[in-house]
Amino acid sequence: MSIKVFFIFVCALVCLKIFAIFNTSFGLFGDEAQYWLWSRSFDLGYFSKPPLLAWFLGLYTNLFGSEFISLKFFAMPFYTLTAYLIYRICIKLELSKKDSISCALVFFIIPSASLSSFLISTDVILLLFWSMLMNLVLIIRSSPKNLYFVFFGVVFGLALLAKYAAIYFLICLFFLTFYDKKSRLAFKTNPLGLLLFVLVSSVFLFPNLLWNHLNNWVTFSHTADNANLNNYNISLLRGLGFLTIQIAILGPVIFFGFLINIKNLKFDFQNLYLLSFSIPILVIVFFESVIVRANANWAAPALLSLLIFFFRSIKKYKYPLININFFFNWFVGCFLFFSIAMSYPFSFFNRINGVKEFALEIVQISKESSIIVNDRMLFSSLAYELRHYPVKILMPHNPKNPISNHFQLKSNLKKNYGEGFFLIGDPINISYLSKKYQTSFIKRYDKKFTSEPIYLYEVTF
Question: pLDDT of the chain along its 461 residues, tens only?
Fold first, then answer.
């Protein structure tokens, strides 16, 4: 299949995505609404993530607005740039121009990229900087100039501000320099370059470290809780499930193509480079999934080099397999976006189905009274959907308890609060209030977007 045909089908998928954005009745995911809320204020850090996504999103919404349609276009430029950088990596790894373009287009429509390009997430920005870093490693390997180490420090610092998972890059780089002599010499023979890299990346990260220090290291505590090995529950089946999901979101056909060509696999520099930036991450997250748990996107950076590795490894039946892989992933993407456009009530869309209607009902009941919401995802969704209404939304937090999310830190219900409000959640969560109050049960809601019943109360003083 020609590059031109690939490009036409990619454009068709993008058009279907745009059609879905304009026609769906679904809302934002709770996490997306949370990131939008963060972007309303420029902070050096946020409870569960470093600040770069919120900064970029704040700049974007100042230019293009905060409506659903606008927000759903946020990720597309990032993925376009990432696809181009994958093309540059392929060229540097001595793939032909045709194969390099094909690999970049294949990335653009793999299931994980199709889905993620529709969402606001930290991975969108991390993958862009990760692909920049992979390019810079190849440049430094060939020409270890001080200026390139400065660029390396800038991009690595920005990657850490996008998501702390960027630290995996140093682990991957260690394996590459351990096994590849030329890479090792490029870093070893330029100590000044290494020092510049450390200093520049530290300058970028320092403000976020200072913010964490001033806020009791809440982000690092949250990250540690996600990987809490103290609550281990060993399950090999869960680990196998994680690996299966990685294959599915990368594209099972290209993985099959790799398997039928595995006997011809050579450990040349190109493959060593690609495996160094994928296998360490997959191994770490696989063991975490076996011991505790792991979300599918925790290994997202590994999929960039793994895709190129699979693509490069295919020898026998190369173009038929690439064509089948391309159109299999293309049809998966079409199914996804057509389902979104039609607002089809699949169970995996439950979290974004009906939130807006619920928010409008709540605001009609509460009138201009404050709304107190205990659940973080529901708090985010309501705050976004009611952004045009003159309503205050707060979250209860007993000062004696540790902070568990950003809104308890920035939008907390103070202990001495004394105005009447409507409570969404359990009244026990406001028991710390110092003034006497009465609660009146209003209604129970059973909604698809949450697995738990929602209880609404009126609280008067």
Answer: 678 888 999 999 999 999 999 999 999 999 999 999 999 999 999 888 999 999 999 999 999 999 999 999 999 999 999 999 999 999 999 999 999 999 999 998 999 999 999 999 999 999 999 999 999 999 999 999 999 999 999 999 999 999 999 999 999 999 999 999 999 999 999 999 999 999 999 999 999 999 988 887 877 666 666 655 566 788 899 999 999 999 999 989 999 888 888 888 888 999 999 999 999 999 999 999 999 888 889 999 999 999 999 999 887 778 888 899 999 999 999 999 999 999 998 988 999 999 999 999 999 999 889 999 999 999 999 999 999 999 999 999 999 998 888 899 889 999 999 999 999 999 999 999 999 999 999 999 999 899 889 999 999 99
User: What are the structural domain ranges in the chain?
Assistant: 3-341, 354-460
Note every long-range contact of 51-58, with CB atoms under 8 Å and residues 24 or more positions apart, other chains counting.
Answer: 51/161, 51/208, 51/211, 52/122, 52/125, 52/158, 52/161, 52/162, 53/120, 53/121, 53/122, 53/124, 53/125, 53/162, 56/125, 57/120
Q: Tokens at residue 138, please?
A: 């190849």
